[in-house]
């Protein structure tokens, strides 16, 4: 086939691909918009499992606290997870959901937060099996 | 997950490029590897940038980036197609022993370089820039720069193709009005940010009017129209008062009417717009050739490389749209317009989620800059509105325009990132 | 939030603008694209025309008149062997000066090697030879030359048609130009006051003068019972009021005469009077003979001749129109087809220039058949008018130019006209056909400002007919 006849193939190809891209993009945007408006639970909701408890109380070893859009941890009573430990600051840490992923943030605590053995600095994404140490409490992220 | 889908989009864009560049490869008389190399560079640039964006912003919006790149790729494909043509014509002229053989061009390679620079600027902005809101403090800096860029051309500019909006420095040409637009938006955003009553509008109104005046004096009517569009849009978003928009439109009509009476070159444009076929041999030659190319293309075009852009003047920049339509038809033209609108939509969405007024206004400003420019130039070459000498963003050949556009897109992306927190 | 609504409104406004742009482009594509593409500013057509060797235009005897030759792959040169003789009827094709007349009408045929699906398939299979189609015209080159030469130094036109078929045997306009030297002559051609680029035969409008009496005659025979037996009183003047009247040429008065003598003596008094009698009916007859109407032809754009609708309150105008003066204007082609109607039992055949389309190897592609345009008078009327026209040549104003053995029939005419209010020497006209039995050529000749010597046009016409009938 000469180039002259090939041109029809190329033209159809280019036009088809670009319109497919347009349709695909519109579809992606549409589902993006739909989700953005609602507050929906993430695909894989995570939870905080107590591995080692500071003291027996509400947070027993093995109990699981589900993490919703935002979970705050600290000594203050307005936190989602209250830890009555003098080594835990009033506003110690925060786990929040952002676009289908969970992040851990230290809120300027005195003694810091330890993630997987390392001192947490800034904001880090959380995965299953991650270990968080706040004060004397140890949590694990579960699915 | 959404991630895979977005990678899917990236791959589709690569596929498009593959088909386009292989078509170009086959079109060449001497099978040079250049189109393949260009394609390779583009793939590398895009992949690398994509992953950088993903790394810094896990849930970053990549639509803006990908659509902008797709449009740029369309541009580079056609610019290379023109390079092939110009090389062929040059050789033909040499064979026919013409006194002044037509020049060989390198639109594609130049555009590729500017593409790389643009992407770099884009990435730098979204990674390095923090707290965009802080930039609203520099209102007077923006004002000064706006005015400087607006009037540089009047005093130091050279006239090209009837419009005095190019400045040559050290052998390189750039369009100050392009940079002026960037600063205008920043200025208007910082000025309108504190809007409380119409008294706050006096200063920005004056700045805009002076800028428009300079544009008209330089005969850069296209930029004037775009400035106006951006200003009115930002005004409405800032004040929510339709009456201001209405007033601006009235002033615009009055101003246009007055300029029509005063300036011969405006009367000429209107004359050409109304009756292009009457003046076809002289004044409206460019427009007529553009319309012929559009008509020749029909719905599906004649095939990449089978049109005759040698008959369309300025085919690499202002008239790239009819050049594309002759080869790939109205369907391609429509596709490009749709893509621009999608890009505009995504950019405006950043304005929706912006956390402060200043950012919001900047996002709106830059979004409407891109949309308005597209409407004005496509409207002009199809004779829907009078023709003006501006370029199609991202697609037309031109370094300043490409870099400015990626800069603006970077800022918009940054605003959208910050807005999500 | 307020702002969200605003942004949405702005989005919608821009969306509407985009949609408006879309619609405009769509509208352009559907309605205006075709005109754009066919504009003479579209150089692509020239590229295409240059690629294919343009076809040859032949006269009816297969002698080539316009031929093209290729210089290289993208350039060709056209030789117009007919030169000044055929410049206006065949036209020329030039990148700078455009495409005209027959070259334009048949541009598609001449510059295309594929005119239909069958030919497209053949060229795909057998490969392209890149040669356009040839066309055979109805023109007789010898006759064409003769007409042109006979007009001599005068300005004017000549049209020769075969009344039975409508074939145009000759179409001449003078002054003319040489299409072979367009570039050199263009500036002076444009400035020339005598309009050498004008095809007078089909685009020149002149007052027909006494030749129009043929139409008046037809109208009288059709509408006035017993007009042939009527005796008219011609005392040299037809008065409308104290100040206005019509005279015969030279002040002649023919006394009491019948219609046929009034015709062959060309009495303005009688025919002016007929105009007053016929009133509207003359207008109807003129229109049925294609005045104010387009003479359709696929090969030529013939200008419309004009006959005014006069009011019965304006007797002067009625009378003037009846003798082909006033505001009556006719092209030579118009008068030629009137003559051919009389010659062909009242039926006008559509005038055409091209009889055959051939392939580049001159094998047959398409034959074009004659077509009837209309029956404009009854056979009986045509017979009568034919007889009257014979008498013009035998006894009347045409007898000095009668050529023995040729049996020419016709009507002479002298048309007065003014230029810028000044009386000019009148045009000299002749329309007619030959031979009386079974006519095979109808002619119309006009010599601009030929003078009162109406023989000028007739003598030329009779020589034309003589050379044809040889």
The 3D shape of chain C can be described as globular
Q: Which spans of chain C of ≥5 residues are poorly predicted at pLDDT below 50?
A: none
What's the total helix number of chain B?
Answer: 14
- The total tally of domains of chain B equals 2
Overall residue-averaged pLDDT value of chain B: 86
| CATH fold descriptor of the domain at 202-352 and 372-469 in chain C | Beta-lactamase
Could you tell me how far the N terminus lies from the C terminus of chain B, measured between alpha carbons in angstroms?
21 Å
- Looking at this structure, what is the CATH superfamily of the domain at 202-352 and 372-469 in chain C? DD-peptidase/beta-lactamase superfamily
Largest sheet of chain C: 6 strands, mixed
> What is the C-alpha radius of gyration of chain C, as a whole number of Å?
27 Å
User: What shape does the CA trace of chain B take?
Assistant: globular
* Rg of Cα set of chain B: 22 Å
Spell out the key features of this protein.
heterotrimer; A: 143 residues; alpha+beta; six-stranded antiparallel beta sheet; five-stranded mixed beta sheet; 1 helix; 11 strands; 24% helix; 32% strand; elongated; C: 470 residues; Beta-lactamase; six-stranded mixed beta sheet; five-stranded antiparallel beta sheet; 17 helices; 40% helix; 20% strand
Model description:
The complex is a heterotrimer of chains A (143), B (421) and C (470). Chain A has 143 residues and is an alpha+beta fold. Chain A has one helix at residues 3-37; strands at 47-52, 64-66, 70-74, 81-82, 93-98, 101-106, 113-115, 118-119, 123-125, 131-134, 137-142. In chain A, the strands form two sheets. In chain A, strands 2-1-11-10-7-8 form a six-stranded antiparallel beta sheet, with no helix packed on it. The longest helix of chain A has 35 residues, at 3-37. The radius of gyration of chain A is 24 Å and the shape is elongated. Chain B is mainly alpha-helical and 421 residues long. Chain B has a three-stranded antiparallel beta sheet with strand order 1-2-3. In chain B, a hairpin with a 2-residue loop joins strand 1 (158-160) and strand 2. In chain B, helix 11 (285-297) packs across helix 12. Chain B is globular, with a radius of gyration of 22 Å. Chain C is of the alpha+beta class and 470 residues long. Chain C has a domain at 202-352 and 372-469: 3-Layer(aba) Sandwich (Beta-lactamase), CATH 3.40.710. Helices cover 40% and strands 20% of the residues of chain C. Chain C is built from 17 helices and 21 strands. Chain C has helices at residues 2-38, 43-51, 83-90, 101-105, 107-110, 117-126, 141-151, 182-191, 200-203, 213-223, 259-264, 268-278, 280-288, 315-322, 332-343, 379-394, 455-469; strands spanning 57-58, 64-72, 75-80, 93-94, 98-99, 134-137, 156-161, 168-174, 232-234, 237-239, 245-247, 255-257, 347-349, 354-358, 364-367, 372-375, 409-415, 418-419, 422-423, 427-434, 441-447. Chain C has a six-stranded mixed beta sheet with strand order 3-2-1-6-14-15. In chain C, strands 8-7-21-20-17 form a five-stranded antiparallel beta sheet, sandwiched between helices. In chain C, strand 14 and strand 15 form a beta hairpin. The mean pLDDT of chain C is 89. Chains B and C meet through helix 8, helix 11, helix 12 and helix 13 of B and helix 1 and helix 2 of C.
């Amino acid at each position: 086939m000469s180039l002259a006849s090939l041109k029809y193939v190329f033209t159809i190809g280019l036009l088809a691909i670009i319109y497919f891209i347009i349709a695909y993009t519109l579809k992606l945007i549409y589902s993006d918009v739909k989700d953005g408006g609602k507050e929906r639970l993430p695909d894989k909701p995570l939870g905080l499992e107590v591995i080692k408890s500071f003291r027996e109380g509400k947070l027993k070893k093995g109990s699981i606290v589900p993490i919703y859009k935002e979970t705050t941890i600290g000594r203050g009573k307005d936190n989602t997870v209250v830890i009555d430990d003098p080594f835990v600051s009033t506003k110690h840490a925060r786990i929040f959901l952002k676009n289908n992923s969970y992040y851990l943030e230290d809120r300027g605590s005195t003694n810091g937060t330890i993630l997987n053995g390392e001192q947490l600095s800034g904001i880090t994404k959380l995965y299953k099996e991650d270990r968080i140490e706040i004060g004397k409490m140890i949590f694990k992220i579960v699915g | 997950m959404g991630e895979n889908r977005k990678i899917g989009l990236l791959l589709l864009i690569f596929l498009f490029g593959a088909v386009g560049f292989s078509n170009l490869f086959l079109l060449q008389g001497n099978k040079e590897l250049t189109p393949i190399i260009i394609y390779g560079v583009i793939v590398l640039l895009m992949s690398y940038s994509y992953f950088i964006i993903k790394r810094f912003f896990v849930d970053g919006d990549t639509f803006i980036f990908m659509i902008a790149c797709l449009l740029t790729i369309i541009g580079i494909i056609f610019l290379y197609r023109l390079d092939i043509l110009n090389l062929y014509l040059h050789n033909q002229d040499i064979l026919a022993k013409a006194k002044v053989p037509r020049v060989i061009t390198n639109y594609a390679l130049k555009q590729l370089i500017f593409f790389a620079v643009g992407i770099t600027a884009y990435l730098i902005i979204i990674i390095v820039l923090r707290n965009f809101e802080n930039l609203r403090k520099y209102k007077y800096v923006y004002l000064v720069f706006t005015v400087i860029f607006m009037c540089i051309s009047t005093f130091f500019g050279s006239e090209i193709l009837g419009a005095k909006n190019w400045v040559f420095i050290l052998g390189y040409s750039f369009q100050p009005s392009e940079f002026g637009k960037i600063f205008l938006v920043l200025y208007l955003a910082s000025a309108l940010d504190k809007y409380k009553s119409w008294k706050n509008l006096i200063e920005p109104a004056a700045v805009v009017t002076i800028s428009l005046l300079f544009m008209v004096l330089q005969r850069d009517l296209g930029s004037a129209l775009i400035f106006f569009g951006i200003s009115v849009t930002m005004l409405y978003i800032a004040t929510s008062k339709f009456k201001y928009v209405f007033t601006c439109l009235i002033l615009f009509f009055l101003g246009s009417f007055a300029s029509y009476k005063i300036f011969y070159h405006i009367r000429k444009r209107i004359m050409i717009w109304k009756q292009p076929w009457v003046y076809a041999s002289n004044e409206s030659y460019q427009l007529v050739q553009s319309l012929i190319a559009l008509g020749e293309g029909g719905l599906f075009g004649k095939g990449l490389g089978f049109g005759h852009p040698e008959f369309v003047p300025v085919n690499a920049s202002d008239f790239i749209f009819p050049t594309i339509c002759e080869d790939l038809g109205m369907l391609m033209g429509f596709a490009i317009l749709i893509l621009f609108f999608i890009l505009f939509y995504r950019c405006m969405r950043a304005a929706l989620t912006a956390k402060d007024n200043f950012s919001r206004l900047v996002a709106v400003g830059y979004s409407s800059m891109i949309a308005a420019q597209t409407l004005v130039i496509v409207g002009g070459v199809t004779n829907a509105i009078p023709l003006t000498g501006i370029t199609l963003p991202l697609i037309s050949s031109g370094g300043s325009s490409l870099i400015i556009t990626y800069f603006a897109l970077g800022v918009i992306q940054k605003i959208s990132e910050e807005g999500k927190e | 939030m307020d702002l969200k609504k605003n942004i949405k409104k702005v989005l919608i406004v821009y969306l509407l603008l985009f949609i408006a742009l879309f619609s405009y482009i769509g509208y352009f594509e559907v309605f205006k694209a075709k005109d754009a593409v066919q504009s003479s500013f579209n150089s692509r057509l020239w590229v295409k025309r240059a690629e294919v060797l343009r076809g040859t235009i032949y006269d009816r005897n297969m002698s080539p008149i316009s031929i093209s030759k290729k210089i290289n792959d993208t350039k060709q040169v056209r030789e117009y062997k007919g030169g000044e003789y055929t410049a206006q009827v065949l036209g020329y094709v030039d990148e700078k000066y455009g495409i005209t007349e027959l070259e334009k009408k048949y541009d598609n045929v001449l510059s295309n090697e594929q005119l239909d699906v069958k030919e497209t398939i053949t060229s795909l299979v057998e490969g392209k030879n890149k040669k356009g189609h040839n066309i055979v015209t109805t023109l007789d080159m010898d006759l064409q030359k003769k007409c042109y030469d006979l007009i001599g130094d005068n300005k004017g036109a000549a049209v020769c048609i075969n009344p039975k078929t409508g074939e145009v045997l000759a179409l001449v306009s003078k002054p003319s130009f040489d299409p072979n030297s367009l570039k050199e002559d263009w500036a002076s051609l444009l400035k020339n006051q005598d309009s050498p680029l004008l095809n007078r035969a089909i685009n020149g409008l002149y007052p027909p003068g006494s030749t129009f009496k043929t139409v008046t005659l037809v109208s009288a025979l059709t509408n006035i019972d017993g007009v042939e037996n009527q005796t008219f009183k011609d005392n040299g003047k037809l008065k409308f009021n104290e100040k206005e009247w019509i005279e015969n040429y030279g002040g002649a008065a023919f006394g009491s005469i019948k219609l046929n003598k009034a015709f062959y003596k060309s009495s303005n008094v009688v025919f002016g009077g007929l105009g007053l009698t016929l009133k509207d009916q003359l207008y109807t007859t003129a229109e049925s003979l294609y005045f104010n109407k387009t003479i359709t032809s696929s090969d030529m754009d013939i200008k419309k001749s004009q006959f005014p609708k006069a009011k019965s309150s304006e007797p002067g105008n009625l009378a003037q129109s009846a003798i082909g003066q006033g505001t009556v204007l006719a092209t030579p082609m118009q008068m030629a087809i009137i003559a051919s109607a009389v010659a062909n039992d009242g039926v006008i055949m559509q005038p055409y220039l091209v009889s055959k389309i051939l392939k580049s190897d001159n094998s047959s592609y398409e034959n074009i058949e004659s077509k009837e345009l209309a029956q404009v008078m009854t056979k009986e009327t045509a017979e009568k008018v034919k007889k009257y026209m014979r008498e013009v040549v035998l006894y009347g104003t045409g007898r000095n130019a009668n050529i023995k053995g040729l049996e020419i029939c016709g009507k002479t005419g002298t048309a007065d006209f003014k230029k810028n209010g000044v009386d000019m020497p009148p045009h000299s006209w002749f329309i007619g056909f030959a031979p009386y039995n079974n006519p095979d050529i109808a002619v119309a000749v006009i010599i601009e400002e030929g003078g009162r010597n109406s023989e000028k046009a007739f003598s030329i016409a009779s020589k034309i007919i003589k050379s044809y009938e040889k």
